[in-house]
């Protein structure tokens, strides 16, 4: 595999505008990459949107090309069809097709959950910082938002989130959390679900497991098994991360049939295009490829983490394809310096934007180049940093 | 079925083997191409052994070769666009703005025109601002209106199954939105531009706060010389917005791209409410290429017109009356419940359209496939209709 890894690794962002679960925030939120100076993003290394730098697997690419023959058919008439993919997800989790619904990216699922389950009288509970989309949509709809700061280690404060959930419409639990990269063990998530269900049975708990496939912490496990014992629990997954399909737009939600049924009317019919459905069918059952891809990420992640730690900067215990690092300086300054050298890093995540930066993990080759840029941007002398870095 | 599965498998292996000698090696050991067969061959292989799908108003030939080539190019492009959130959506918006001689602020793109229809309903209806729609019609807007508690005023069509524009204008007083599909679905009928413009003027006079959503999904299939798009009207009038789709004549129903054209203020209101991450890079690439390919669009329209005329003529000879179709489907009085007709056709591997109340007791909607497919289909229709009449006798 190493010898074949000779392809071009420098992305050309055909457009500077960004869309999707991750980057939609960039476009419609507070930070607009399109406004970045000099248009240097064109040849930049994108360590800013938690994408997979290698894209879909070879098997997924073949499936995509075969699905071109169904381009003219609505996704329910393609082979495989939307329902084939839902059935596959259900089968792999011991559930029924009615427990699974699809989104044009998991972003659509998050959006629809906020629309379906929050209101002016039933608000959203979310961490701060966390993936911003649910809170942004809730505010736009006039649903109150309660934000619970993460703890000193960048972990979701589950106790405070549980306490705040009573009477809420929706609780958003991002595990691993974006941007802090930390994960909670399966037992802690089960405890959260059981206690919220008991104290506030009408509250829907949305657990975003976008980074599930990257987790190596053995105490973690998916929350999907909870849906057969608990109503009002939804797990969101995406094909945008480890499966490398951020540009193809597919996510899925797993939950009790009743809660999925309540979300369905808010979902766009035929939201999953035929090629991505075919690619997803090939990709999610390719366990060997998933393990290889996870190992590749872990190696580059450890290398990058080691650099920052040896430079005296704290990173959280990342269980994702990005790191959350305390630079002891405003992230904006660091971001600009990196960008001037063709290296794009994560957007600001208030309230921690004055100290912390999120950096996505590219290939090992990209991270070696990135570390050189980071050294320079942080004003570390090459020799001492290099000596420390090894 | 078995044959198709086996053939697909052989193709997969073949593509892999070819790639090893002539394919392109991507990063991470991914290998892709070269493409081992034409799109047309792939299309026929994909359809072999399947029932004839005449139920969803799809284009049986899919996108043009140039669109397919654009999608294939995206799979091997430097930077791996399939893996990136960074989108070429602004390129499509710009291409559409150039096509309609307007600004990008006049264009909204969506995950099929479905997203456009849903977003307009979210934007312009509410519990106090009803939706007006003809009946029967495409139900997307009505479904969303009911979801958010907006009343739906359903206005029956005329005896020729045209939308009753006077009645719709009358029903519009105090309404938030009129859904005006022209040509209409499922009735397939059209109002000429003069009638549409008079309708809009009347609504503007009598209910100036009502927005009119004109769904021109089937625009490219219209042959009536009185037809004109209302896009120029929409560009000038903040109360009119036009929805279009790549799912029909452009053959991209599986790729999920649609758009709206309208006044910048109207488009902004809709964009503010829409989920913004729904468009996939392959569909976008195909759409950008397709709108440059005017020749393919004309070939497709001619192909449909011929197959449609053949089908209409056959039904007329069989004593069944279709409406004056301007679309890639017909709506025909089969003198029996649509369900009965549909179930009988299905037994012969031909799938026709669902029920469209209140016409489900008499009318069937049948999509137009290729001429060869329609020649096969009418044989089935003949058997099904004859079976009924002999049984009745």
Structural Rg of chain A? 20 Å
> What is the number of E strands of chain A?
12
Q: Give the topology string of chain A: H per helix, E per strand.
A: HEHHEHEHEHEHEEEHHHEEHEEHH
Shape of chain B: globular
**How many strands appear in the DSSP assignment of chain B?**
14
* Terminal Cα span of chain B: 38 Å
Structural class of chain A: alpha/beta
What's the helix count of chain B? 14
Q: What general outline of chain A do the C-alpha atoms trace?
A: globular
Query: What amount of the residues of chain B lies in strands?
Result: 5-15%
Largest sheet of chain A: 7 strands, mixed
Helix content of chain A: 25-40%
Strand content of chain A: 5-15%
Helix/strand-derived category of chain B reads alpha/beta
Multimerization status: heterodimer
Strand order of the largest sheet of chain B: 4-10-9-8-7-5-6
Residue runs with pLDDT of under 50 for 5 or more positions of chain B = 1-21, 389-393
Q: Terminal Cα separation of chain A, in Å?
A: 25 Å
Description:
By secondary structure, chain A is an alpha/beta fold. Chain A has helices at residues 23-28, 58-67, 82-92, 106-117, 133-141, 158-165, 186-199, 257-263, 274-284, 287-310, 331-340, 364-377, 382-389, and strands at 45-47, 100-103, 124-128, 145-149, 170-174, 204-208, 233-238, 251-255, 314-315, 322-326, 343-345, 356-360. In chain A, helix 7 links the parallel strand 5 and strand 6. In chain A, helix 2 (58-67) runs antiparallel to helix 9, helix 4 (106-117) runs parallel beside helix 5 and helix 6 runs parallel beside helix 7 (186-199). Mean pLDDT of chain A is 89; it is low at 1-21, 23-41 and 385-390. Chain B is of the alpha/beta class and 393 residues long. In chain B, 45% of the residues lie in helices and 15% in strands. In chain B, the strands form four sheets. In chain B, strands 4-10-9-8-7-5-6 form a seven-stranded mixed β-sheet, sandwiched between helices. In chain B, strands 11-12-14 form a three-stranded antiparallel β-sheet. A two-stranded antiparallel sheet of chain B has the order 1-2. The interface between A and B is large, with 77 and 75 residues.
